[in-house]
Sequence to fold (230 residues):
Amino acid sequence: MAELKKTKKKKRERKERRYTGEQTYGSKVAFSVGMLGGLALGAGVYSQWLADQARSSAPFLTVGGAVVLAGALVFGDLGTNPVRVGDGGVVLEKGRDLLRILWCDLESVRAEDGKLVLKSKEQTLVIPILGQPRAVARILAEGTRRVPEAMDVKRSAVSGLPEPSESDAEILTMESLQVAGRHCAASGRPIAFERDARLCPQCCQVYLRDEVPKKCLTCEAELGERAIRA
Fold:
């Protein structure tokens, strides 16, 4: 019986998918320019220091090639930021920073100028559709299931996206969400400690453990004992 109780109290494991992105048109242009810069730099170095007789154009090739190569590396779109999609909403990775919007916080999801724009009261995430087609397809599928009222994307703006599959990304196990400081959606009372919070498994709406309603106030999913620890 004791083992059974421990099993019941075991924290539900939450998952999210990590998409690294794909090479975009801008990436290909930057790569091509970078290659030309590298070739020019190599030719200049060879002509200036390795050839039997240095050419007058060697300094220009060396400096020009270095500048072009550096510009391609610094300013070129050599890749897109990784995106995570799963039980904890949508995350945009920017270096070591994880910019997360929980499903319950999404106010709108739109396609604008080739980008998927996700807005909440606190922040806006912008994801290039061509650079992250699989992540965008997953966001649309998950968002439609979890928070359909926030979805405002025309099909014509996202035509040609791949169908989400079970093997389209790296699967990560989520750590505890930081919800201390938020307010219970049912009572409005602040949440001082993560251990006192309970989440809706569908939209991540946050409640105090003693204030969990029978149905989520955001997505209307059945709650009660289905609410999970933060």
Remarks:
- Residues 214 and 225 are 9 Å apart (CA to CA).
- Residues 1-10 have pLDDT under 50 and may be disordered.
- The first strand starts at residue 15 and ends at 19.
- The helical segments are 2-9, 25-50, 58-75, 133-146.
